[in-house]
Amino acid sequence: MTDELLHAELSRTWHKPTGLWGWLTDNHHTTIGLRFIITAFFFFALGGVEALLMRTQLAKPGNTFIGPDLYNQLFTTHGSTMMFLFAVPVMEGIGLYFVPLMIGTRQMAFPRLNVFAYFSYLTGGLLLYWALFSNFGPDTGWFAYVPLSGPEYAPGKRVDVWAQMITFTEMSALAGAVNMIATIFKNRAPGMSLNRMPIFVWGQLVTAFMIIFAMPSVMVASSMLAADRLVATHYFNVAEGGDAILWQHLFWFFGHPEVYIIFIPGTAMLTTIIVTYAKRPVFGYTGMVLALIATGFVGFGVWVHHMFATGLPQIGASFFTASSILITIPTAFQIFAWITTLWHGKISFKPPVGYVFGFMFIFIMGGLTGVMLASVPIDLQVHDTFFVVAHLHYVLIGGAIFPLLGALYMWYPKFTGRLQNDALGWTSFALLFIGFNVTFFPMHLLGLLGMPRRVYTYLDTLGWGGMNFVATIGAYVMGLGVLLYVSNALLSLASGRVAGNNPWGAATLEWATASPPPPYNFLYLPTVRDRYPLWTNAPDQPVVVGVPSDKREILVTKLMDAEPDHLYETPQPSISPFLVSLGSAIGIITAIFTPWGVPLGFVLVALAMVAWFWPKPPHKELLEEQP
Amino acid sequence: MNVRRLAVFALSLALVASCRREQRELRRSPAAAARTGGIVRLSDLQPGQPSPDIIVRNLSEERAYDLSEGKRLYASYNCVGCHSHGGGGIGPPLMDSEWIYGSNPENIHDTIVEGRPNGMPSFGGKIPDYQIWEIAAYVRSLSGLAPTPAAPSRDDHMITRVAPQSKKEETPKEAQK
Amino acid sequence: MIPLLAATYQSALHPAGKYAAEIKWLLTVFTIVASVVFVLTFGFFVVSLIRGRRNRMPDATDETARRSAKWVGGALGVTIVALFILLFASVVTGRALSHIYEPTERHVSVIGHQWWWEVSYDGPQADQIVLTANELHLPVGERVIVHLTSRDVIHSLWIPNLNGKRDLIPGKESTIAFQADKPGIYRAQCAEFCGMQHAMMGLVVVAEPKEKFDGWLAAQRMPSRSPVSIDEQKGQQIFMNTSCAMCHSIKGTSAGARTGPDLTHIGSRRTLAAGVISNTRGNLAGWVADAGGIKPGVLMPPNSLTPDELNALVVYLESLK
Q1: Mean per-residue pLDDT pooled into runs of 10, chain A (627 residues)
Q2: pLDDT at residue number A538
Q3: Fewer C-beta neighbours within 10 Å, C or N terminus of chain A?
């Protein structure tokens, strides 16, 4: 078969449905991945606007721009949005888009699960913003400590909306994580043994495992909270033997790994950027992988440093101090390895390298203030102050958002087939970098000078006005930077230079196919013999043949060494994942108002599941093979 | 285009659907705190033409925040001391279907303001009027007479009463005055 | 010009007691180590960018990797040593901060409410217990154990000039020790988000010499001063006959409710509304008439009083020194 014929047949087989029906049914990993990214940025913009409103309110002491009620809703929604509706989904979206491309396959292992994950996530986000725009946004902070968020002190449905938003997003994250692990383990191109996987894929793998272990904790917690509020259970009622601290343990057992769930993909992207623009393999590949895994493990042993002020026994606190300090070691190794890679590389200075610079400056500082927070005595002073606000933005924006923006700039040609304007790219980076530091650096000092976090205003006599004003200016500069970044991306959509397959001369498989990738990803499924296939593959590197092109079949390989194992037909577009997601949405949202939502949801989901798992007629060939 | 139109429709529906349940008044006007007397006539005999009865709609019953405030005040002003958490003790229970002085919001309001024979003190002038309405709303929610999505769930105390969500609404039986 | 300098009476950087001083020492150690680490790491990174730009060819030979491995290993070793030093310093300071209290020490209890602090000092008899609000007095140079709990949600007591913070958790009692070494007035603020008026939940901390403190405590143990002038008498009547007495108590009168702060000696306090406004006649009148205007969402209702009534009430409250 010639290439043209093969292309035509594969295009027919992997055809992307269009229109509203297509929007509800399409299960291509690129479609879903891109949709995750765009939706996440939509929520990012909303969260950013909330941040600007809060900064405006805090610009001067005693400001009356927004009152306490709205302010509390804004900071809760801002935190919840950035953590649950932006950071995790956007990392997941990029994984969905690039992991199958990087490991040389045509589809995720469970395509329909992806569709379900997306719609769950979308519903959760819309639910939260429906509440906010109707003036009953949750108002107890993104970690919603009981009893403040319990039935006695949080009347109305504000907190219930928050708890169910958690249910939706965590369901989505769990579905995505299972899918990611199965895909990475079983669908890699022949020859891509575990020790040849790109670091980015390793990052996604570790993240997925962390999601599987961390998210159930918060789902349990939020369900217990919802039950306490709706059907008067007593999980958190102190008088009936419940415990207010239990909530904090459950939440932070998820909450701290959550930070690494956001940060690990960030570092993995940073490695990708550095390798691409320094044009050499990363220094200490094995060490990098071990660093990611170690971070994943130790990340589960540090949660109590969020709770030092609750009055823990000294010896217990010391253990968590030690583990919180320990977790810097793998990251320190990564930083040294990046420096070494750049040192011996040939760097081409493109805007993503600017984001590497931003990461180094901001994240190292955030990491060091993190070491301070690990120390019990210092933590007792600065816990729950603006110092912590500064720290968490330094690590999350520095450690995840800067690599993310850099990586998106790098991958932009792969998404769209066009290059962005470098001058605009540098300008938006500069605005973001300066704006960020102007906003958040003064907050370290504000915290030490006594300013607690989550205050809607403050007294004139405390003298915090000057630094707050500076921080507000910085926030607007940052907002301008984001605006410029997005405009650059939108403008280049139509007018950017055409990029070609591999504009940066990068090494990994996603650059081996067209930009944007065709629906079937690769005309011939590739094989690899090394970590950097596009740099080192032989000119006559074999390709996989024998994968039928008239069915959506993908190659399943073995876990360790990726030897070809068998073929597996992935499902056609179908409406059933959307229906399951709709059924669960109806159930979960009704459960905010009445316990009858639970059985209702069960029935609807069960019906939709029947459609989802309705047995397909067996293949003709299989029937013929039967003896 | 279709998707967008659908989204716009859903959004406007959602905004309309946001109801009184979530309203909060964080700064009461002093007028709301003014002292008032009773509302209901205790006698059917009136001079001249009989004027129509005043029908009161207690908005606090529909507001979750007000109901929750009512619950807090119910404890603060020591209603608990006689009526317990609805089960009664020295005073009659409030979570059943028996109402000696009427089950309407205005009846309960007047009972609190004026007091009743055999032990119910008169709180008139001692409690701001809007708080009386809040307490009246909460008292009605104890027997399931307020809308359940707005009614407060369990307390952060020893369990003393059934949460309104898990309770069947009872038809009030009015005992004669 | 915007003042860039913050006040020093609510600041972890201006310790006025030994615990805060210990923590500030530790913070200084950490900051110095962190700054050195930052400058070194970021410096190496900048050099790597410059070198990486100058390099003609990427260099990824095994020989280079071996040489680099030594550097990276060395850097990692230094990192680990630095971390151990920090860990050690932290544990040593932690030990210095931990307290095992002796029965003779002075005990104070602080109870968190939405959004004010109830402070009480033990007395030899029940009627000698001092109940006050939003003002904590400490004798200078003496270690005071503060017992903390909450009546509603979680709050956190944080007097940055004296020590770190400790949460006030409903259903649990925890303790924290303070020792003020410098007399002065400091300010604390709730540090755990506790709802609508979390931002305006302040506490005035008065550290004074022992004699002055004892004098203050003795005065606080007294029942309230009886009204003398006509206005004061009228004010007391209004207090007892309107909603005031439903929530507040004044020792020595029939007002004994514990929902709101105890007002037995309100005239002697420095601030109103939990450290938010100073205790002047105008502020007091404004607070009584319309508390929600100053702190939206506050649990104190507005009071519709005629100007005369309000004036008498305020005169009475002010007389409660």
Answers
A1: 88 91 92 95 96 96 92 96 95 96 94 95 95 92 92 91 94 95 95 94 96 94 92 88 91 94 96 95 94 95 92 84 92 95 94 96 95 93 95 95 96 95 95 97 94 94 93 96 96 92 92 93 91 87 88 92 91 93 94 91 94 79 60
A2: 79
A3: C
- DSSP state, residue A505: -
Question: Is residue A349 within 8 angstroms of chain C, CB to CB?
Answer: yes
Q: Does A20 touch chain B (CB under 8 A)?
A: yes
Our measurement of the distance from residue A318's CA atom to the centroid of its chain's CA atoms, rounded to an integer in Å, reads: 31
Name every residue whose Cβ is closer than 8 Å to that of residue C182 and which is 6 or more positions away in sequence.
Answer: C16, C17, C140, C207
Binary contact (B154, A230; C-beta < 8 A): no
DSSP assignment of C159-177: -TTT--EEEE-BT--EEEE
Q: Measure in Å the smallest separation between the Cα of A125 and chain C Cα atoms.
A: 24
The Cα C199–Cα C191 span in angstroms is: 9
Encode pLDDT of C13-47 as tens digits.
999 999 999 999 999 999 999 999 999 999 999 99
Q: Is C209 on the interface with B (CB under 8 A)?
A: no
Class of residue C220 by CB neighbours under 10 A (exposed 0-12, middle 13-18, buried 19+): buried
C114, C179, C120, C118: which is closest to C144 by C-alpha? C179
**pTM (predicted TM-score):** 0.93
Give the DSSP letter of residue A567. Answer: E
**Residue of chain A whose alpha carbon sits nearest to that of B6:** A20
Instruction: Report how many helices (DSSP H) and strands (DSSP E) chain B contains, helices first.
Output: 5, 2
Using CA atoms, how far apart are residues A71 and A311, in angstroms rounded to an integer?
Answer: 29
Contact between chains at C153 and A464 (C-beta distance less than 8 A)? no
| Range 114-153 of C in CB contact (< 8 A) with A | 114, 152-153
Q: Identify which of B2, B149, B158 has the shortest CB distance to residue A20.
A: B2
What is the 3-state secondary structure of A253-282? HHHHHHHHHHHHHHHHHHHHHHHHHHCCCC
Whether C259 sits inside 8 A of B76 (CB atoms) is yes
The CA–CA distances, whole Å, from C55 to A280, A283, A345, A619 equal 12, 16, 7, 58
Interface touch B24/A69, C-beta < 8 Å: yes
Question: Within 10 A of A620 (CB to CB), how many other CB atoms are there?
Answer: 8
Q: What DSSP letter does each residue of A451-492 carry, written as one string?
A: -BSS-S---GGG--HHHHHHHHHHHHHHHHHHHHHHHHHHHH
**Residue A511, preceding bond cis, omega within 30 degrees?**
no
Whether residue A68 and residue C22 make contact (CB cut-off 8 A), yes or no, is: no
Residues 86-125 of B with CB under 8 A from C: 125
Residues A91 and A404: beta-carbon distance below 8 Å: yes
Asked if B163 has any chain A CB less than 8 Å from its own CB, the reply is yes
User: Exposed, middle or buried, B42 (CB in 10 Å: 0-12/13-18/19+)?
Assistant: exposed
Length of chain C: 321
Indicate the burial class of A265 (C-beta count within 10 angstroms; 0-12, 13-18, 19 or more): buried
User: Considering only CA atoms, which of A78, A81, A99 is closest in space to residue A32?
Assistant: A99
Is A152 in contact with B3 (Cβ distance < 8 A)?
no
Q: Is C11 on the interface with B (CB under 8 A)?
A: no
**What pLDDT, in 10s, does the model give residues B95-132?**
888 888 888 888 899 999 999 988 899 998 889 999 99
8 Å CB contact between A583 and A119: no
Digit-coded pLDDT (tens) for B27-42: 888 777 776 777 777 7
Assembly ipTM: 0.95
Strands C116-121 and C130-133: antiparallel
Chain B contact present for C247, CB below 8 A: yes
Query: Which chains form contacts with chain C, at 3 or more CB pairs under 8 Å?
Result: A, B
Q: What is the pLDDT of residues C188-240, one digit of tens each?
A: 999 999 999 999 999 999 999 999 999 999 999 999 999 999 999 999 999 99
